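USER:
Working in pairs, take the chain set out below, taking as long as you need, and write a paragraph about the fold.
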Amino acid sequence: CHDWNGKLHEFGSHWRSADCYDCSCSRDGIGCCSSFTTPVGYDEEKCVSIFNKETCTYKVVEKNDHSKECPVHGWVG
């Protein structure tokens, strides 16, 4: 299987892409799904979600003070 970056992967192999998707290669092709959940149900006027590509996680913080986390009422993914 060739991934979207042109890299060749063996049948039966598994990997995590640079943009945090867990992928696998089979004779049917490549299948990928997100390894992260996305925050929903937070105060979008007061807060912002920030994605960390190193840990593949979101953090929801106040727009005016990123040291203060905001409550999140749901996650999807």
About this structure: The mean pLDDT is 95. Residues 42 and 71 are 6 Å apart (CA to CA).
